[in-house]
Amino acid sequence: MRMTWPIGCKAVSTWFSMNSIKRHAGLLFILPGLMGFVLFYLLPFMVSVWYSFMSRPAGGEFVGLSNYIDLLQSPAYRLGLRNTLVFMGLSVPLNMILSLVAAMLIKNTGRFKPHFVLIFLIPLVIPSGAMVFFWRMFFSSDGFLNNILSSLGFEGVNWLNSEYSMFTLLIIFVWKNLGFNLVLFLSGLSNVPKEYYEAAKTDGAGVLRTTISITLPCLMPITVIVLLMSIINSFKVFREVYLLMGAYPNHSVYMLQHFMNNNFFSLNYPRLTSATTLLSAAMAVITWGLIWLERKASHD
């Protein structure tokens, strides 16, 4: 005997089935990306963490924290860590300050605003090979910059292999990443209510007072995001350093990435995995802290 549903029950059944589809639709959409993340990122990372506690990857013995103690005692690691922290301490604030100043200047340029933004974004789309070729021709011993110095009566400088290499690296980093931060700051400036500036102008507040009391507090959420992205981008500078200065550059620009890259080629996996685990843990803590600050700033 065929069972028939009353009209009311059928409607309820249809409603529940549609809601079930809606609830699981999002999961179905993210499932391919989630599987790829777990398979190609999370699982290899967990294996890497496990190897950091082993004497060697194949047939090794569990050695506890011995690899980490050996890592922290390595002069090469301490040099790379120090230079990385110095570079981040110089490049991140410099890039953020310059991009904020540029965004505030460009904000009121009227119809020329898109043109200025496009100029600053050009470095982001230039291929690394072409960019490295340009900077090598500019900073090499017989390059454009040294020719200018020679014509002015100054002695040329080995910009790519001397104590000035950090200065060269800072210029390249800011040149490449300023446009990205500029766009983020422009989006934040466009969300500041104009009424705030009008009220401040009525009260007789100057540009400096307006910037300190209105612009900077309103930009706090986007500033946290820019800070996080600048820290992440500071680790990506290794590609340019490697192509310009090689695997063993001047000691002033020997970064953590050089240390890990050289240990990879020498097949020293215990030291390599220990270094990557510590770096990942540090980045996770920094990211969590900045996200917490961003949420706190947004709620305040």
Blueprint (SSEs and pairs):
Blueprint: H1 7-51, H2 66-72, H3 75-106, H4 113-125, H5 128-139, H6 144-151, H7 165-190, H8 194-202, H9 207-218, H10 220-235, H11 238-245, H12 256-265, H13 269-299
Helix pairs in contact: 1-13, 2-13, 3-7, 3-10, 3-12, 4-7, 5-11, 7-10, 10-13, 12-13
Structure description:
This protein has helices at residues 7-51, 66-72, 75-106, 113-125, 128-139, 144-151, 165-190, 194-202, 207-218, 220-235, 238-245, 256-265, 269-299. By secondary structure, the chain is mainly alpha-helical. It is built from 13 helices and no strands.
What can be said about this structure in brief?
The chain has helices at 7-51, 66-72, 75-106, 113-125, 128-139, 144-151, 165-190, 194-202, 207-218, 220-235, 238-245, 256-265, 269-299. The chain has 300 residues and is mostly helical.
